[in-house]
Design a protein that fits this description.
The chain is mostly beta strands and about 150 residues long. It contains two helices and nine strands, in the order αβββββββββα. The strands form two sheets. It has a six-stranded antiparallel β-barrel. Strands 1-2 form a two-stranded antiparallel sheet.
Length: about 150
């Protein structure tokens, strides 16, 4: 998602189109981009589309060891999965999986960004160009979740 700002500056406000500056005081929280939801008061804003996906995932977490889980959605920037281990927000994990319709075995680092029971949302970190391209290809192939 990109934000394009118009650098045009009007030196004098036109009274029929703009209110004087002292009348337009707005609190920063009123201008902020609305979040799709929050977890423990932190806004969640998804930057990549997700599609439904169901494949096995092996999760390696520093405090919990390794566990097998199951994916529930996938995007080019992250994925959701169910796993029977306790993970914390911002915890670093390593995920190993092979995508449907792909021959590439992924070993990707990520950070936990969402928790709902034993369902976790992870944002990928340090993707190579070939990994990112393959993820985008599979996400397009599986279709974007409505």
């Amino acid at each position: 998602m990109s934000l394009i700002l118009n650098p045009t500056v009007a030196e004098d406000a036109l009274p029929e189109f703009a209110a004087p500056a002292e009348e337009t005081t707005v609190a920063p929280e009123e201008i902020a981009v609305p979040a799709l939801g929050t977890v423990e008061g932190r806004p969640l804003i998804r930057t990549q589309e997700r599609c439904g996906a169901d494949f096995p995932v092996k999760i390696f977490a520093p405090g919990s060891g390794a566990a097998m889980g199951r994916s529930c959605d996938l995007g080019s920037g992250g994925m959701g999965f169910y796993a029977p281990i306790p993970l914390a927000l911002d915890e670093e994990v390593h995920l190993h999986f092979t995508l449907p319709h792909s021959r590439i075995a992924f070993g990707i680092a990520g950070k936990v960004r969402d928790i709902s029971g034993y369902r976790y949302g992870v944002e990928f970190e340090g993707l190579t160009q070939s990994e990112a391209a393959e993820l985008q290809r599979i996400v397009r192939l599986l279709g974007v979740k409505e």
